[in-house]
Every structure is written in C-alpha cells, then in structure tokens.
## 1
Amino acid sequence: MIISAQLIDLFERNIYPAELEIDAGKIVEVRKVAHVPEGAGYLLPGFVDAHVHIESSMLPPTEFARLAVVHGTIATVSDPHEIANVLGVEGVEYMLHNARNTPFQFCFGAPSCVPATCFETAGAILDAAAVDGLLAREDIGYLSEVMNFPGVLNADPDMLTKIAAAQRLGKPVDGHAPGLRGADAERYFAAGIQTDHECFSYEEGLGKARLGVKILIREGSAAKNFEALWPLLLEFPNQIMFCSDDKHPDDLIHGHINQLVVRALEKGCPLFDVLRAACLHPVEHYRIGTGLLRPGDRADFIRISDLETFQVLETWLAGECVARQGKSLLPHQAVDTPNQFLASHRQPEDFEWQTQSSAGAIRVIGVDDGEIVTRSIEGIAPIREGRLCADPASDLLKMQW
C-alpha cells in the first residue's frame, strides 16, 4: 500500500512531499518525492492524551477509542485508579482485557493511591505489594499519579516503596501535586516523580518546570488550565505534553487533543513545538509502542486537511484506516462490565441536618468553575423547623455522605 501526502517530520522539523509504503501494518519505507496529488493533505503522527481516566468518559476502553480516533487521537496514557477505587486489581485487569480488543494504544498505569486518601471509604486497597505486582506486568507502563504528596513529604514507607518499585523496573512515575511550591515541591519531585498535570497557575507551572518536571497542560471536562499554562510551551517546549484528565462523552464527541493543538497555534506557539507536545513527547516519555512515521514503525498516523484548522480527514492504526471524514470505522463491541455497588437503604430523615443554632453559620466547600481545587468558605444556611436547609438561590447546596 502506498499513501502520498505532505509529511510533517517531527524529528527533522520539516515538511515535505512523501510516499509511505505500508505492509503488514508497518511502515516499510518513507520516500521523499517531487510532488503529491493536490488536496492530499498532511500526514503526521497521531495525537496522544498524556493523562486521562477512561472511566470518566463512562465508556469502556474500546468505546472510548471509537470516539477518540475521529479527532486524530491514537493513544492515551491512562490511569485506572477510578475503577481500582471500586474493584481493586480486578478493575485494572478489566481495563487491560477490554483494551486488547482495539488497535488503539492504551498505556495503563499501576494506581499508586487506592484509596486516594486515608479519609476515603473505598471498595479496595492497593498496598505496596499489590502495586509492585501490577508494575511487574509488561502491560503496565508506569506508576500512576502520586496523589498522596503529604505521604511523600513525610516519608510514608508504603508510598516510598511504591515509587521505589517503579524506579527499580525503570518505569516512569507520575505526579499529582496541586498548589505545591517552593521547598516542598523540590522535595516531592526529588523523590523520583517526573510529571505534574495539576498546575492551575502559570507561576506554579513555572516553578515546577524549572525543577525539570514535565508539565502536562490540562484541558478536560472538569479542570481547564490551558489559558493559564500555555505560555510554558514557549519557554519549556521540550517539557510539555497535553492531557484532558477527565473527558465526558458529550465533550469527547466534539473534540480532544486536536482542540488544544489549534488553540496553541492560535496563541502563536511554534508549529513543531506544539506537535511534539501533542504527538511525540508522551510516546517517548512513556515508551508507548505507537508509530512515529519512521521506517519500521507501526503504521499509526493521521491525515489532516491543513495547518490552521487541523481537520482530521483520516486516522490510521496498524495500517488500517479507523476513522474517515468524521466517522469512526472501529466496530461497536459488546462488553461485560464488572461492578460493586455497595449502599445501604436510606430514609428522607437521613438527609436532615438538625441544629439548635439560630444563625445557620456553616462551613462550605467553595468551588470555582473550570477548577477541581476547592477552598473553605463560610456561609449562612436557612433554618426551617430546626433544620439546616439548602439555598439554591445563593448557590448553597447540601451534600450528604
């Protein structure tokens, strides 16, 4: 099979007319030619989401892939800690098993913090021995985000043992340290943690980038940090990747990493720095088996219309076209979904908050749109018949657990 187009070479930082010769799912040869047919578009390695929880899409990996390939995404770095919080190792194994049914590349990690904190009631616990067992598997690529940064700073033995296990096996260690700066950030990343996707201000990202940390610019359904962090791509182009973290299906229908590519280019970021962040850096850092348009590589790539809109015309995986003109060509697959739903029966009175107070002063979790970092504020709740009540008119809502 021969495919012709303008080829975007991320290694030579060059664009030239070329022919790809493909056989048995691999690129046999890349030939520079004098010209290609008009309207052939551009070929480049596909986009990679450098950190995402597939579970947040409310889809199994195979169905996530069906949506993502339409937008030129060919691989994800996926932390399965959400399903592990419910099902433990069984949940991780489910994700691995389902992902084998698609040519889409999923790089799954070993969840480092299940439960996420000692204050949670989770469906499972992954201790150091369980994490070590997962890391030893060939189909586990890295240690997932180390959310327990207080444990790292206080030298918690279980947490440090998990990090040491990943280092012993030569596997990357992902970070998660929102707001951590200064000496504490230095100590946290000195423990062997290499990335962070939780920066929500330019100053925070700048401090971590100066430590050599790889910064993942996040724009997902919940947290939206692109506007704050995009200037880091100008200053630290070799340390930047793009990620969504959480991508709900109604958002994934409209776009994925391709949207961040277009926005970064509109900001004036250099083309090759943007594309290396979107296509190359995650593949190199996590050693994903995705092709990068070189002879001998797996034939994974995308064809786009132009260098402004980046409209994805085709997505190819292992030498097969899996999306064309906005339509996914990957088949629907029936799945058996594991579950563990544990809940006790509740009565309406279980959700009542009795009070003897006349003022109704309460502590409230403050939430900002586009951020997942919260703050503590004071509020005044209405009191009716000795019960604290919600006040939707002032955006004061009641949570119960």
Note: The radius of gyration is 23 Å.
## 2
Amino acid sequence: MTPVPRRPRRAGDLVRVLVGLVVVGHGLVHLIGVVPQAAEAPIPDPGTAGRALWLLAALAVVAAGVGLVAGRRRWWYVGAPAVVVSLAAVLTAWPAAAAGTVANAVLAVAVVHGWLAEGPRSRRERYRRHQSAVIAEAPDPAEPIAEADLALLPPLVAGYLRRAGAVGRPRAAAFRAVLSGRIRSAPGAPWMAFVAEQVNTVGAHVTRWFRMDATMLGLPVDVLHVYDDGVATMSAAACSAIRVARMSGAEAGHAETVTVLNDVCVLAPWALVGLPVDWEPVDDHRVRARYTCGQHQVSAVLVFDDAGDLVDFVSDDRARIDGASSERLTWSTPVGERRELGAGRVPTVGSAWWHAQEGAYPYIEMRIHDVAAIGAGEGSGDRPGSRLSARGRS
C-alpha cells in the first residue's frame, strides 16, 4: 500500500519538538527523587517505595517526551499515565516539588492534543478504521471487464476506458487514492499545503471517505469528508481541537455526489462499467453524464482530447459552500500527465476550478501519487451487519 507522502515541515513541528524536549528534561528532573542525598535536592528522602515511584515517573515521562519528539502517533498512551505517576511523585514531596506541576500541566495539554489528533474519536483514526473495514470486507474477485461490457457506453467513453486499461481488469469493489498539493478558500487567500488519501466504494453501496492533513499559518488542520449514499458531511479543525469549517445537509450531499462521479471518471474509469449513469453525446469531444445516487441526480460534461484521453470534467451541479451560504457555480477539474498506476492508466496531476462571476480561479492543485483497486466484484461490503455499512453511516 502506497504511503501518504511526507508533508512539508511547519511551525507546529517545532512546537512539538520543543515541548517534547521540555518533557524529557522534566522526566530527568525526577531522578532527584531517586537519590535525593546525592543530588542535594530540596526534598525530603521519600524512602524505598518513594524512590521507586520517582524512578517510575522519570522513566515514564522521559519515554513520553521521546515519543513526542519523534512524532510517534500513539505517544500519548505513555504520556497519560506518565502525568498521573509524576503528579503522585510530586505530591509525596509537596510543597518542595510543587514546581513540577507546571511541567505536568504542559505534558497534560500535550496529551489531550495527542488524543484529539490520534485518539479513537479523531478524524484520522475514524478514517483508518473505515479504510480497514473496506479492505477487510472487499468481496472476492469476479469476472473481469470484457470488450462486450463497453458496447453500451458512448464511443468516447468506451475509447477512454480502453486507453485506461479497463478491459481485462477485475470489477473492483473499491479504490484508494493518495494525493498531495495545495488548497485555498478564495482567490486572494493564502495557499495551504496538504497531503491526503481517500477510499471510495462503488456498486450497491457508494461511500467516499477523504482525509486531508493541511497546514494553515504553520499550524496543522485535520479535514475529513464522509459520503454515504448521498449523505455528506465535512469537518475541519485547526490543531485537531478548534473547528474551522463544517458542512452538512442536502446541498452538501448534492455537491459531494458530483465529486463521487468525478472520482470515478478521473481516478477509477473502469468503475464506470455498471455505474448508474445515463450518457448523452454532445459532440466529437464531449459527452454528458447524468448520475444518480441516493436522492441526488447530478450531471457533468466529460471533455476528451483528440487521442481519447479525459482532459476535463465540467459540472453546474456543485455548490461553493461557505458556512451557512451556498452558491451553485460551474466547477471543472482539468487533468493531465497520465501514467500507469495500481488501478490502471490515470492522470497524475489535476486541479479544481470555480467559475464565478468575478472570474475563474483554481482552489485546489494536486498531484496523484497512486490509485489502487481494492477487491473486486459488484458488491462493496454492504452486507447485513457489516462494519463498513455501520461506520459509513456514522
């Protein structure tokens, strides 16, 4: 499985390292409770049991600090009990060791942030659980796509699928994509670097989970899009704690249905076989697709070059949502630089544009690092009692 690219360094990384070093230093200070006479420490001799407590606190706090400096995902599993043990040690020498509570407060704040960023309720961990469920529940391989399956498609689309290597490819139940790039909220807004991954299921149960790790003003921003059979939500939080954006409701579901269709056309064209799409040829280079999922029906025009490759996807059914307001605008995603990836020959660079009254502008520029098929067959793990179905609707 292709790993998500390493994101650029940001101010939060320096803060994490500095806090981690403070925690390591705090842990080493606990050693004065192990040999108070040798250190000439201003605390009373805690006795044999007390020395053991101070040694345990030293080891736990230093381990937590090292994990924080190294950026270990679950360092807070050690950090949380380290706070408790350290506080217990400090209380045995109160008030002489009262200053240790300040360092413990810093460690406690870092632990809370670690839990928010990587804990079981975090956006990152929810995404990982869903992705694992998709992989675990992907059905067995089915019949590969045959030339006869392309007969019902418009010639432009059938030719595109041939160029993408769809013929002979198993009917995958899901796919995963790894991306990186930059994003902004408005034409004059600063660009934010990001790395991202997504996992989509196709077939009877359509889901799209998209997780982005972005950087805003040097601080981390966690973003999670969840789409489940026409119902969509999005949430973003700075430093994993301060919500900076949220999206839900019917308009969000409609907009994300356009995105689901775009994902299939760009990232996994083989999944167009059997997708509930009504096709309408427009001219020698364009064809209109009308796609229905849940309560939403959306349409888009697929634009092909002379060679038969998809070069743009244009839709008037996607809204630019800003807080409580939304406005449907023309949305396009020009793509290029194709190469063979895990799921076939697909574009590796692209962007997303809003065509507003004030002029057209790109708000996302990205590079596609990999697209990999997951499983095969027409199902997507949506079986009675399946974990995928339960989590997709949470």
Note: The chain has two domains: 11-118, 144-392.
## 3
Amino acid sequence: MQLDIVWLQFIAVTAVIVFAGIKITRYADFIAAHTKLGRLWVGVILLAIATSLPELMNGISASLQSLPDIAVGNIFGACLLNLLQIAIIDFYYKPAPVLTSADKGHLLSSGFGIFFFFIIGYSLFAESIGFSLSFLTIGLYTPLLFFIYFVAIRFIYVFQKRKISEEIKEIAKPYKISLYHAYLRFAIYALIIIFAGIFLPTIGARLATLTGWNQSFVGTLFLGLSTSLPELVVSISAIRIGALDLALGNILGSNLINLTIIGIDDLFFTSGSILLAASAINMLSVLAAVGMYSTVVISIIYESKVKKLRFTVTALTLLAIYVLNALFIFRA
C-alpha cells in the first residue's frame, strides 16, 4: 500500500512537469523569432535552462539531504535520456535522419558535452581511488565546470550569430501576444517545473527504500526519466511545429546545464566532495554518455541522406547503449 502511494506521487509530479513542458515550448519558439536569437540559441540557453530546472531542484534537495547517488545518478540519467530522445524524435522526423538535417552548431554542443563528461568522469574515478581533487568541501572540478559552461555558450552564440538572419526569415508565428507576455508565461511555467522538481528526491529515496533498489539505479532511471520529461515533451512539440534546431538545441543544451548542476550540487553538499561520496557505479553512465555523444557526432558529420526505416542505425545505437547501461547499473 505504501509503495502504491509513492508510485502515485511519482506519477503526479511527473504529470505536472509534462504539462508545464508542453506549454513552455510554444513561448520559447515565439521568443526565438521575435528576439532574433534563433532556435538553436534559444534551445541551448533559454529553453534548456527551463527544462533543466527539475534536475537543479532535485540535485540541490538531494545534496542537502546527503543523498549523493540520487543527485549524481539523476544528472547522469537525465543526460542519457536526453541523448536517447534523439532516437525518439528521429522516429517522428520523416524527411531524413534527424541529425542529417541538424544545424552544424550542434557539433559544438556535443563536443563540449564530451569534454564535460571527461572532466566529471576523471574526477569521479580519481576520487574513487583515493586521489583527492577537493579543497575543504568543494571539488576542484566545480569551478572548472562553471567556466567550461560559459565558454561553451559563448562559442555557440558566436557560431549561431553568423547565420541567424536566414533562419529568422523562415519563422512565422501567428501568436497574438506581446514579447513581454511571452516571457511572463515562459517564467510562470518554469516556476511550475521548479516546484514540481522539489519533491522528486524525497520520492526517489522512498522508492529506493521500499523496492530495495540501489540509489544510483533509482536516480539514473526513474528520477532521470521524470526530470527529463520536459525535454522530451518540448522536443516532440518542437518537431511537430518544424523547429528541429529548437528541439536538438534543447536536448544538447540541457545536458550542458545538467552537467554544470553537478558543480552546484557540490556547493550544497556539505559532507565533502559530492563525487567522492558518490558510488563508482556512476562511471558506467559516464562511459555510456561518451558512447552516445560519439554516435551523435559521427551521425551529424556523416550526413546520411537515406531513411528507409523509421528507426535509423543511429537511433538503434543510442537505444542499445542506453539499455545496456541501465542493465549494468541495475545488476551492480
């Protein structure tokens, strides 16, 4: 009975996040057109920040409750699920393989994502073998993550600025609202996502206790799924309105923010470096992420023009890596 209640709470919070995620897409595309920032930039920054708020609130809450594997596992799980979403939107996108039609600016997001995972994976491994990379209670990787994120968005902005004018001409939005009201409604739905995300770590910890599953598995799979639903809903909604780069920008941009959130979690985790306290099992997710990112990069560069089946080789590869990682973590 108690387990049923926890599952109902999980589903209810997830439903709220999905609802807010659907609404926020509409206003993001409006802002992309009317501020002349473009879909890639708005997807990578504004929309990615909004849809990553559940991970932020979940991570801070879990860190304050001294649940490092819930915090770290959720971030890694959300990143892997975001990359898996590329396979999902590839199914919905009919003209060609989705990454073939993508803006080359997504290579920058993917490259920085791999570099993020290198820094975090190296730090996690070093801490697990007793090689300290921390000062007092803060990991040395924390300021580095913040620095890399700002370098990444700067690079993406400069790249996108070169070709923004052509894209803006193609975006025609019939919304009869002002830019002010678009920002206001965007902020309202972002706040809804924040408040829903606050409850996730407590639900996740109770779920782990009642089922007997390890916290890394719960954080990576269930909380990762729940906190990644805004990205999924936003991405599918964006594909349906023809905003491919808004969808991919949201997915890859959210990962950059999620990985930066580990640094924020570290600041709130007062028992020491959060990666020192986290289980070494999380290294499996780091390696899986590198494999999935590599698949994305190869697919964008290769530019396959043929899509004979709804699921491409890229989509199947992403799915295989994700499933194998979930099985390994569950059995660990």
Note: The longest strand covers residues 134-135.
